[in-house]
User: Fold these one by one.
Assistant:
Number 1:
Amino acid sequence: MAIHSKLDVDELNILLIDEDSARVAEIASALDKSRYKIQHLITSGVSLLKEVDAIQPDIIVIDVESPNRDILESLHTISSYNPKPIVMFSSQEDTEMINLSVESGVSAYVVGDTDPSRVKPILDAAVARFKQYQQLKNELDDTKNQLESREIIDRAKRLLMQKKSMNEDEAFHSMRKAAMDNGQKMEDVAKTVISFLNNSHSKSLL
Amino acid sequence: MISLEKSDINLGFIPLTDSAPLIIAKELGFFEQWGLKVSLRKQNSWATLRDKLHAGIIDAAQMLAPMPIASSLGLGTPVTEVITPMVLSLNGNAITFSEQLYLEILAQNKLSSITFPMAAYLLQSVVKNRLELGKDKLKFANVFPYSCHNYQLRDWLKSAGLSDNDVDLVIVPPVNMVGFLESGEIDGFCVGGPWNAKAVRSGIGITALTSYDIWQDSPEKVLGLLGAFYQKHPNTVLAICAALKQACAWLEDVPNRFEAARIMSHAEYLDANLDVIAPSLLGSCLTHRDMAPRSVPTYNQFSAFNKEAVNQPELVRGEWLIKQMQEAGQLINCEIPPRFISRVFRPDIYQQMQMLLANTNQNKLIRKAQ
């Protein structure tokens, strides 16, 4: 997909949210002449979400202690939101531990310091892990969808067998024929069958 | 006395008026009486407080009531079993508008003043007028997606047939609320103390109603901790709850609450003036610079002599919160496992703690502390 190839080679836009201007300068200089381009520096603001939407950053970088984390948190609740890797920096030594908790799932990674020489490898790792996670998630979603559609088809088949006294083969073939005739997916035909046979007394389907 | 599996405890909190039970339990020595050495860890955001709890950097925390449910369902975070053995406070939030929006409400409704608590329908004409003129929608802030503030604001708007299609709902950290209201970035907010009182004292806002006017006596903050932590440290959890329960009982007396406000104003806690912390604790809702405060006796409620249920994490309360989350559209594609809420809300632990309190003749100690 377009996004993935972009993560591999092209320039990556970073949205850096940090109130510490010294650290901003450090990170900026550490990323000079790399594929990471710091697009915008925002300290705070209600417009943060709008800016995220407008800039479409490839990575978001934020101080783990920033109050603005809660603004970013609302990204998860926007259904149309396209997930982005979030890298969180922290100057407190114990936050390395947070890493353990978040790396397994959501797109957030905490790192213990902002030693300029470490910034680039950290971002590389975050991008790579995020990509991996997204792929895994997509695969899981696909598998889940396949399982679900098989279940729906099975349910429709059973209904046809019960209510239309077809045998299994007849039920399957009648649905396949309907799918081919109407240019529909089997799953969609099955859904129609289910809603029809569950809700209606009519006797004339298929 | 019970034997503790762990006595050094890190407790996370966000500096708000309703963090009183944690601060009082620490300052008045209730934790100490149970052999606990508690360090209160001030946090800047709910998301980071949650992540630190999940990672075990803090052992327990004051949380927004819906947060343990969100963690256990894996909303915005990997699925993590967080339980709540105790409700720490009821009510405590309020909705405040900018002075400018207040004037707009008066003008659009041809009024010379509004009555408190303000009814949401007064916003209808403002919303309509802005739409007709092609002006920006009203922008209201709350503190976290999984917060009662969010659901209360939605519920109140709904009472006038308004929804997030008609107004923009955004998340703003409490510390930035008053500044954003002043700069016009937002037109109003739903937040806990001391931020409503702060907006009124600064002369930039009007507190139209409190959360008590929307939902009577709903759980606001709860104690949250990992299910795994409880399994390893059951006695420690009972001791933490017992000390917090004592603090809540102490806070039942109104005169004590003024003392609590003084303690909380210190830099390591709320770092705010007494005149913005004390009012809500004393049952006074500041309304507007030029208007009298309004009496809301249970603005902040931590305990009640005749209502044992205040601190009890009853299952119905959890189920009710899940309903609010559903209505806010947060549970689409999210399956609630059977008997889910009884794994998160744990009245069984609360009841054990009460038996412990009854058996451990702590009453004398409470009186001494008073």
Number 2:
Amino acid sequence: MFSQFDFEVIRSALPFLWEGMQFSLGLTLLAMAGGIVLGTLLALMRLSPFAILSWPAGAYVNLVRSIPLILVIFWFYFLIPIAIKHLTGNPYASGIGPFYSALIAFTMFEAAYYCEIIRAGIQSVPRGQVQAAYALGLSYRQATTLVILPQAFRNMIPVLLTTSIILFQDTSLVYVVGLTDFMGAASKIARRDGRLVELYLFAALVYFILCFTASYFVRRLQERITPPR
Amino acid sequence: MDFGFLFEPAFSGGGTYLDWVISGIQWTLYLSVLGWIIAFVLGSILGVLRTVPLAILRVPATIYVEVFRNIPLLVQMFIWYFVVPEIVPKAAGDWLKTQMPMPEFWNAVFCLGTYTASRVAEQVRAGIQSIPRGQVHAGLAIGLTLPQTYRHVLLPMSYRIIIPPLTTEFLTIFKNSSVALTIGVLELTAQARQISEYTFQTFEIFTIATVVYALITLTVTFTMRWIEGRARVPGYIGTTGK
């Protein structure tokens, strides 16, 4: 069964796999940062009393959350070049490269999911805090950035991190547009050398160790920072 | 936008492009529903096992959940399709490779089902654990065995409580069914891409796929919200609406 398992294939593939892993990690961290910033804006829009802000944000979030990530990736791979030609006015404008296309797709997709978490986090801040901030004479911007968001984020950190672990797993889906993330690298070597068993099991093991360790630390963090009630 | 291309004869297969879209929707639904049956049954068993006071049952269930939750679905899809036939005993492997009907489809169903089972298990466990411990004690005190306590006391309560998260998990498997395109199942997303390659009406066909996904999601959400309202446990805080 495992008698023909060839560790040499994996060892010689390690440098290429490491390049793929850097792509995966870079994409995850940047999409996470962009997604949280954009998600916060979307959440503030959704909670706004003005329908002109809350309605488009709600429509965007609900639409993105109801379609598969792969379709979102296809959408952005199709739309980004068109948008660039439109913006630059140059019909021969070159794209922005596969990494940035993937980054935009993942940021826009994750923003919708982060938005719902952040909205719940903001709503978990007691109403009295907002009233106290206004009573002290803070403006909306001051109350939001100095009083509400710091408390909201403290409650949300574990959920945001858990979502980011899923985001890391989801980055493997850039495979569908042929990019070389960790899974893409494993898949390319697997096909070139005809060593599907070794490479795919190794990829599964690496993902498992990384995600399992990360979720363990998130659980520990959650126990530590749960605010006293 | 011009949707006329839908009624033109497709590049191959005899029908029109509209037939391709409909066939894609059907495969997406088959994948989601069959995968969900596996996920629900297996996930319920695992979720119950994770709460029983016997480590010999609890530990394997915990290992299952951690393994299937921490490996990306795409990797699991490839393992079912490319790796499993190579590492099972030779006769079984040969059957999987040559005799199995619709190997892409059934591999995708098992993959989606076993992956989602780990997530369903967590919801079932959370549901059981949300019931006050006094109910177990009361069940045991009136002479029920532990399996009877689960059957008549804990499970009827927890399933009613976890309808909303289970709905989310069903919608997740529905959206995740698009990952099956990586091993060659022509479900809705795959058909949308294929049609865009043949007709160059990318904007139109992606819009159609998006609308179909959104409509099915909406239908499921509203149906489940109705069921949830009917099944709500009196005395518990309603989660319907928001």
Number 3:
Amino acid sequence: MNGFAAFALKEVREIVRTWRIWVLPGIVLFFALTGPILARYTPQILGAVVSDQIPGLNLPTPTSADAYAQWMKNLSQIVLVTVIISYGGLVSGEVRSGTAALVLTKPLSRTAFVVAKAVVHGVFLVAAVLAGTLVTWGVTAVFFDGAPAGPLWSGTLVWLVFGVLFVALMALLSVVLRSAAGAAGIGIAAYAILSAAAIWKPLGRYSPAALTPQAASLAAGQEADVLWPVLTGLILAAALVAAAALFFRQQDL
Amino acid sequence: MSAAIETYRLSKVYGRTRALDDVDLRVEEGSVFGFLGPNGAGKTTMLRLLTGLARPTSGSARILGQDVAAVGNSVRTEMGFLPDVPGFYDWMTGEEFLRFAAGLFGLEGGELHKRLGLLLGLAGLEGVRTQIGGYSRGMKQRLGVAQALINAPRLLLLDEPTGALDPLGRKDVLDMIASLRGRTTVFFSTHILGDVERVCDTVAVLNAGHIVAQGPIDELRSRYGQQKVVLEVTGGAEGLRADLEAAPWATRVASGSNGTLEVTITDLAEARLQIPALVAARHLGLSRLEAGEMGLEEVFVELVGEKAQ
């Protein structure tokens, strides 16, 4: 086993044995479970509450597309914010606690340190979201008449590129900023800017800013051209991890 | 003899503070080297530069023949390091951390098993199943020493290794350091003079970022020992003490054991002439007059002055 593999294995064990195993998977699974149920019964609840004020209100019958839309909305908001907050101290946490100084004076390069973290936590996010998708797919099948696989899984896979991009961004921010809260703040600002940037057509078509709207379109069963956003998203994620490694190599610890 | 550590005009500046200033240092391979200095002298900065955790502002450092600026995994494979406050993963047990550290060196199988047993014993952590988060500071320090030895390093860098230990733990660590003499170069920073006197063969004294003395510990003692005389007189020595304190060639007069006076001097020849005259003027008998040997503590105080107090 080389230094990279030993450190990556440490990251996996750290996920399993600390709060990390509960927070992200817990949030993903909670919304995977409740999303379809909420989508199924929201019109009925709404109807019961406002029927006195608005007589004759006719709410449409919910479909699996509503459950999928709920899932995509939860991924793009709650899950993404969870990723940003929980990874604000991905690297800086180890620098502050002194563990980085101990492991980086052993045969583990700073590049391997950063890349191992980004890869392991990227895979962790993918695993948690795929498990959540499986759950939401099953619950949708129970509460609705049919749950087509294609829209849900294609939309989720496209969103995962966006999620992985933010893991990479947080890796960079946690190298550049020693404050986890500061990194999370800038991460949330980056998310807001990227969301707004999708309004501009070139960015909304070719850049990673298009990933969330395109993922939502796919989940709704619509056509979407995702090749460029996926490609630029993956390239940008790799570039962010490379930049994180480069910055980290220059830093005094 | 080749050098395990060699620095040339090594400097580190933080803002307006010059933490290290043109430090030239040579540590011979196989020696146990004490890096002495008061708090804030720059000892930890020096170790951070030597381990590649920080970059020098100017100058260069070589570890085991390789430039630290280009230091790669090949040098780190032969090096062990204990920071002043070692950081561990609190969710691991001591044994798990040692296994993890061994994994970074690619150690496995029988060799790993043998070293684990040895080092857990050294750290007094055999059978301890508590997570590191529940360890006392002393336990963490002992684990820190153990992890620094996991790869049987050629060069061991220790930053204040005995600072958090009780007397027994301190003795164990110092015995361990002494046992490595000749096989492993040990470079350890400390402000505890007793530790240095006990195990080091060579020493450098750092003060305010400057090396103020460097050499074999016996040479350093004798160099400064020539500037001290011990005298014993018959009768009351209080009046004589006042005379000695007034002498221009005496910098310090202290009462030693059995009524002796220990005089730190600037001019030995002058002292040898004047002291008998002063004794005679007080109508006292001179029982003993000899060159004394300065302890390392006195050398240290002499070199770093008030800052060391």
